[in-house]
């Protein structure tokens, strides 16, 4: 059966970006339409059916959390639970959800940001909203790390927090808002709905110094990436699913040019490489220029398995994305997720929930910040 890409269907979808983004994408898609016709191989042409399932390797990673040689666990760990705010702020989750929906309708890419923010918060020591702290009073903001380049929409987290504060002052943590907004953002993007535990507290410090060691880079080896995810209890299958978040959003040229200059990475589809070079014409992009490419040109605002289909057509954007297909441990999962969107959603939910529960702290070491950007004053 042919895998067909319905750009028309996407363009009539209500979950789509703003008009300006539409125009931008239309220009992008029309260029690719031609090359898609040539390049669009069916999954079955590339990988016969039997291979999709039969080739599954045993994952080498376990879902059990292992000691992380780099991060040290905070002493005051928190027990998360479903409906943690049922007595203290019964409407908390509903307020967050309504805010996420309202913001999404104004700025579609806020939903994209919430998913990335959860990853960058939780992967670095703890889901403790440390990423939201500004540089002030001896704190050096994590936002200044090169690894956090391109992160956006932080100001709208404050919008959500303000709405929650109005209903329940000093009750709902910023860390829970980061987690719940990612959950609700995923739904806005056509992703799965998840039951998520709450009860995280907010850190009183930034973990800027630890970011380089804990957050993988776009050109790290898959072996290293798998080991980083394993350290937070996520196995190879979960890692493949989580990287499916790159089915939405954008990548700035500075993170792409290594694959284009001086020579084009031979694992890149040549037509796609040509397109990317047009998007990123300078081998050394000025970091202040807003030059980027969307991660998925076909369904850019939908959290779906198009990402895996793109990988199979050698149209992964980051080196780390494309390695999912070339690595023998991860590639069977890529093929399975490319063939089955429900399976992708199932694994994505499972892994995102594990990530969202990484080392939550309690009130012995954390607090509920009044303003997500600052530690409460003593
Ligand atoms: C090995 C792991 C990962 C690496 C190296 C990585 C790297 C990157 C890079 C370089 C970008 C582009 C930033 C820019 O140029 O603006 C990006 C974007 C993004 N990443 Fe990841 N990422 C990883 C895993 C994840 C995970 C696990 C998630 C969430 C579950 C995620 C969610 C996103 C999202 C949603 C975007 C688009 C952001 C936007 O458009 O504002 N990433 N990632």
Automatic annotation (TrEMBL):
<keyword id="KW-0964">Secreted</keyword>
<comment type="function">
    <text>Removal of H(2)O(2), oxidation of toxic reductants, biosynthesis and degradation of lignin, suberization, auxin catabolism, response to environmental stresses such as wounding, pathogen attack and oxidative stress.</text>
</comment>
<comment type="similarity">
    <text>Belongs to the peroxidase family. Classical plant (class III) peroxidase subfamily.</text>
</comment>
<keyword id="KW-0479">Metal-binding</keyword>
<keyword id="KW-0376">Hydrogen peroxide</keyword>
<keyword id="KW-0106">Calcium</keyword>
<dbReference type="Pfam" id="PF00141">
    <property type="entry name" value="peroxidase"/>
</dbReference>
<dbReference type="InterPro" id="IPR033905">
    <property type="entry name" value="Secretory_peroxidase"/>
</dbReference>
<keyword id="KW-0560">Oxidoreductase</keyword>
<keyword id="KW-0575">Peroxidase</keyword>
<dbReference type="GO" id="GO:0004601">
    <property type="term" value="F:peroxidase activity"/>
</dbReference>
<protein>
    <recommendedName>
        <fullName>Peroxidase</fullName>
        <ecNumber>1.11.1.7</ecNumber>
    </recommendedName>
</protein>
<feature type="domain" description="Plant heme peroxidase family profile">
    <location>
        <begin position="79"/>
        <end position="376"/>
    </location>
</feature>
<dbReference type="InterPro" id="IPR000823">
    <property type="entry name" value="Peroxidase_pln"/>
</dbReference>
<feature type="region of interest" description="Disordered">
    <location>
        <begin position="56"/>
        <end position="75"/>
    </location>
</feature>
<dbReference type="InterPro" id="IPR010255">
    <property type="entry name" value="Haem_peroxidase_sf"/>
</dbReference>
<keyword id="KW-1015">Disulfide bond</keyword>
<dbReference type="InterPro" id="IPR002016">
    <property type="entry name" value="Haem_peroxidase"/>
</dbReference>
<keyword id="KW-0349">Heme</keyword>
<keyword id="KW-0408">Iron</keyword>
